[in-house]
Each structure stands twice: as structure tokens, then as C-alpha cells.
UniProtKB/TrEMBL annotation:
Chain positions covered by the region annotation Disordered: 1-21, 83-107
The protein's name in its UniProt record: Mediator of RNA polymerase II transcription subunit 19
Chief subcellular location: nucleus
Lineage: Eukaryota, Fungi, Dikarya, Basidiomycota, Agaricomycotina
Compositional bias of kind Basic and acidic residues: 88-107
Amino acid sequence: MMTQPNAVAGPSHTGQSLAHSDASIGTGTALTGGIGSLSLDAYLPPAPAPSRPHTTIHPTHDLLGRYGILPVYDEFVRPFTTSAPSGIEDKGKRKEDEADESRHGPKEGLFQHGYKAFIKDLGLGKHNHKKDTFLTDLMQMPEKQPVQVVKLDRTTLVHAFRLKEGGVPGVSPFYLSCIASHSAQVQHQRAHWRRQGAEEKGAWCCHCISSH
């Protein structure tokens, strides 16, 4: 008859280990349930917002209703868009122009004459301007080529600052004689005028002295 070997003597820990594992599982479940009750979403990143379809805005759309600002318009804008009382008469050139436009429609060619239509109500009077081509000429003008400065040689300096004997090349001697004679005549005439003026001045002074 065979007998089983005896177990090792000592305290048995099997029951304690099972109890400890059961307690750990219960504690983890309790903590998980507690954190879930405290909104676990607070520790997670927020979900991405849903993408809105891209729409094109057109001036014909109801933008006040689209953006929900119709009450603001009714409170702050609509009271000031009402027409003025009929008892108040608005006279003047500008009022006549507006009335003429209301009868015959907008003036044709208003924007075909430059910017005069935008400043006509400022009271600046006539504003005429001449067409200036300075900018066009400046843009079309060819660029100036840079000129390199060089040192003059000795031969050029000698020929440029030396006078040759004889007449001036390309100039007639008769022309020079006429200039000389004319200069002498002019000097003689000026001297005559000086003498005549001095005599008249002296006579006038003598007349003044004798009269006093």
C-alpha cells in the first residue's frame, strides 16, 4: 500500500492569497466606478467640432437674418433711416441736383470725367487740371549711360590752353574789325552821354542854388 508524501510543515498561505486578490479586484472596480462617476471626460481631449459647409456670401442674401443681428439693426439703425418731416424744407444746389436725379434717373457719364464728381459737393469751385506727361516721359526716357572720368593727357592740355599766332580759325577778320569798330563807337557814345548828363546835372544844381 503506497502512501502519499506528507506536505511540508508550516503555515498555509493559500486562503490568504485568494482573499487578497479578491480584495484588490474589488478595490479596483470601486475606484473605476468612482472615477467614472466624477466624469472621466474631463481628463480626455475634446471631440473635434463638426465641420461647417463653406458657403459663399452674396449681397442679395439676408445677412441680418443670417448673422442674427436684426434686433440690433432695429434698435440702432432703423430709427435714423426714416425720412425727415415734410415741414422742414431743404433748399440749395445739392437738393436740386438730387431732385433732378430722382426725376430723370442717374446722370449718364458721371464716372467718365475722372474724380470731379466726387469733389463737386465740397465747395472748392472750379477744379481744372491739365494732362501732364511728365511721368510718361520719365518712364520712356532711356537710362543715362555712366561716363567714365579719365585723366587728360599732356598733349590735350597743351593744345586746349595754347593760342596759336594769327587769326581765329573759322572767323572772318572783317567780322572782328566790325566788332572792334562798333565797340569803339559804343564807348564814344557812352562817354558823350556821360558828359551830357554831367553838364545837365551841374546846370540843374546851379539853378537850384540860384533859386534859393
